[in-house]
Every structure is written in structure tokens, then in C-alpha cells.
């Protein structure tokens, strides 16, 4: 069955976002990433930067569970923590986007949110450490933290966020139709394989 | 870089062994599965059935760690438990097989044992529950246990065995160059994709 909804989960620095862009371009499908953030920001009233930061990254291993039951000065939304509220809105936007037709969606637990759609192909992109380190320094510049530390921090937050909202392990091959190592295959080959698998009858 | 050593890890019932056979046939590489068992049996003096059972499946979640330090009536091999001893011999055989030249190896932690070889492609094959259930009943017959139970039991043992000897999580996409869902892709497409990726320059 042809897959017209493509979700891409990715390790930080693996090139997953670039791959998503290129797949969308090649298949002529709309690409959702920043657009989702904008819509979620509009629906929630949150700043887009805030949505970008906390829509995919938990505030930390121990903090997330604390904040999920947080009733302090920043308040809760209908009994929910702001993180849960953000997830609920984001989930609704992703379901609406998928209902509209073919698309490529990067990150934001979209693989889990759309797991029951038979027309969806869920992809996980990962890469070797050296490849990711070189890539983040080249694309996002140096920082006071070592590249290895930056990778670990970001992916740990993604994994904690994913576990919290899906109760699944981030990066488990069994959650994806296709998982690829972009450093051994190369970005272009990943794009080609994803398009090939998506277009199977 | 062309990959001439192909390891295939697989969920029970996913068709990983069949895929391994077909990949070996298509690439003209020797296929190691039962042959490994025979060699390990010869080197250890154990019965091949015993090697088949315990070379890949731990005796159970709690039992494995107990047995690993077991010094009871069945004795230990040079201070090791029989399970550790079996792993050490199996590891040596796998390293020797890979040194000999191109090959396809199914299961037995070969992905971990050969993780540092740049000429190796590590593949994980998984599938949806219904596909695996139908397959094991068709291929291995009925049993007093429900198919779902049989799947869970076998894969839990594989995961425990893998964790014990590698300290990695079985099925984590990041341990493989390529992970495929054989129930959505089909056996033949999996074979085709593996050969395609293995033959990349």
C-alpha cells in the first residue's frame, strides 16, 4: 500500500530534517515542521520559540514528571500542566494535518500520534557520533559545550519527552517501518530509499 | 563502502532467517546459521540442540544472571558459567567466519560481535504481530501456547540474552545500519533493499 503520510524521527545532527525536506520535495508533498510550530503557537497563544523548545524537548529527566503535575504560579490549563497542554494541542494539529492529505512531518511524536494510520510510513534516522558532531558544529556553530555533550543533551530530552507522552522507547526499530543510518548510507541514499518504500503499492 | 559481512537480527516469526537465506543466495555469499551451531558444538562438545537453544536464548530473565555465577553440580568452564562459555566460543567462531570473507550471519549477537568492522552491514528485521503469529503457526505448527505468548517468550529470551552479553537494548535502531518491517515491506522487498544497501560503494 502506498504511504502518503511520512513521519521522520531523528537523532540530533543526523540530517533527519534535511532528509525530510528532500523527501517532501521529491514526492511533491507539503513539509511540516516550522509550520506546525506556528499553528500550535496560534492555537495556544504561546510564543513560537517556546513551542519549538518545549513541544519536542522535555525540560529534563526529573523535571518533566514534576512539571506535569505542576500547579504553581504559571498555572495549569484545565488541570493539565503546560507541557501536557502543549502536547494535546500539538497532537490535534498533527492529526488535522494528516487528515488533509499527503505530507511529511518531522519530529514531535508524530510517529506515535499517527501509528494507527495504514497510509503512514514512520522513519527513524540516526548516525554515527563523528558524523553528527561534525554536522552540528558546521550547521549550528561552536558553543561552550563539547559537540558530544550537545548531542547527548538534546537526544536525552527527546527520549524523555517521547517516553513521557507515548510510553515507548525512542529509537526502538519496532516503532518504525524503516530505520536508517544516514552516516553510512549518505543523505541522498536515505531520501531515495524512503521515497522508494513510500511509493510501494 | 561495499558491505560484504551481513548480520541479520530478527524478531521471532518476522521472516528474518528466510530473508538471510535469500540475501546470501542473491549475493552468492555463504550463509551461517546451523553451520555455526555445528562448529560451536564441535568445539565445546555440547549437543547441537543444546547450542541451538542456549546460544541465542537465555534460560529466562532471572535465571540467566543466577546461572552466570553458577558453580553447582554441572560445574563451570574455567570459572565461567556454561552460558558465558558458550558465548565466548560462539563469539570466536563468528569472528573467524567473518575473517574468512563475505558472509551472511543470522542472530547470535553477531551485530555486536562484529560492530567495529567497517565492511559489515547490520540489519534488524521486525514485523507486526498478526504477520508473525500467522507465520509461526504455518511454519512451526500449533502448540498448547497461544501464538502471541510464543512470540513474547522467544523474543524476551533473545532480548535478555542480548542485554546480558552486549549491555545494549535488543531492537534499538541505532545498533543497525538498516531496520525493516517485513510485514509492511514484504520478504522480497526486504531482500532487495538489503542487497541494494550492501552493494553501495
Write the layout of secondary structure elements.
The structure is a homodimer of 201-residue chains.
Chain A: E1 5-10, H1 16-27, E2 31-32, H2 34-44, H3 48-54, H4 61-68, H5 82-100, E3 103-106, H6 110-113, E4 120-126, H7 129-140, H8 147-166, E5 178-181, H9 182-185, H10 187-198
Parallel strand pairs in A: 1-3, 1-4, 2-3, 4-5
Helix pairs in contact in A: 1-10, 2-3, 2-5
Q: What's the N-to-C terminus distance of chain A? A: 4 Å
How many DSSP helices of chain A?
10
Principal-axes geometry of chain A comes out as globular
Radius of gyration of chain A: 17 Å
CATH domain class of chain A: Alpha Beta
Of all chain pairs, the largest interface belongs to: A-B, 21 and 21 residues
Taking the sheet with the most strands of chain A, its summary is:
5 strands, parallel
CATH topology of chain A: Rossmann fold
Percent strand of chain A equals: 5-15%
Helices and strands of chain A, in order, run as EHEHHHHEHEHHEHH
Spans of chain A of at least 5 consecutive residues whose pLDDT stays below 50 are 69-75
The assigned structural class of chain A equals alpha/beta
Question: In which order are the strands of the major sheet of chain A placed?
Answer: 2-3-1-4-5
How many discrete domains of chain A?
1
Task: Name the helicity range of chain A.
Answer: 40-55%
Q: Mean pLDDT of chain A, nearest integer?
A: 87
Q: What is the CATH H-level superfamily of chain A?
A: P-loop containing nucleotide triphosphate hydrolases
**Beta strand count of chain A:** 5
Amino acid at each position: 500500500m502506498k504511504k502518503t503520510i511520512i513521519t521522520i524521527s531523528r537523532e540530533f545532527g543526523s540530517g533527519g530534517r534535511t532528509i525530510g525536506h528532500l523527501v517532501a520535495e521529491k514526492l511533491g508533498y507539503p513539509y511540516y515542521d516550522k509550520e506546525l510550530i506556528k499553528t500550535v503557537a496560534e492555537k495556544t497563544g504561546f510564543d513560537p520559540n517556546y513551542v519549538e523548545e518545549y513541544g519536542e524537548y522535555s525540560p529534563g529527566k526529573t523535571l518533566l514528571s514534576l512539571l506535569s503535575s505542576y500547579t504553581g504560579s504559571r498555572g495549569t490549563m484545565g488541570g493539565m500542566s503546560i507541557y501536557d497542554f502543549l502536547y494535546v494541542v500539538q497532537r490535534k494539529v498533527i492529526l488535522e494535518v494528516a487528515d488533509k492529505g499527503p505530507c511529511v512531518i518531522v519530529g514531535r511524536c508524530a510517529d506515535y500520534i499517527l501509528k494507527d494510520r495504514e497510509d503512514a510510513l514512520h522513519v527513524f534516522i540516526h548516525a554515527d557520533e563523528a558524523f553528527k558532531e561534525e554536522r552540528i558544529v558546521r550547521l549550528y556553530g561552536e558553543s561552550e559545550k563539547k559537540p558530544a555533550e550537545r548531542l547527548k543533551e538534546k537526544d536525552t530530552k527527546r527520549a524523555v519527552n517521547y517516553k513521557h507522552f507515548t510510553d515507548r522507547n525512542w529509537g526502538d526499530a519496532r516503532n518504525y517501518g524503516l530505520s536508517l543510518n544516514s552516516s553510512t548510507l549518505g543523505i541522498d541514499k536515505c531520501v531515495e530509499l524512503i521515497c522508494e518504500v513510500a511509493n510501494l503499492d
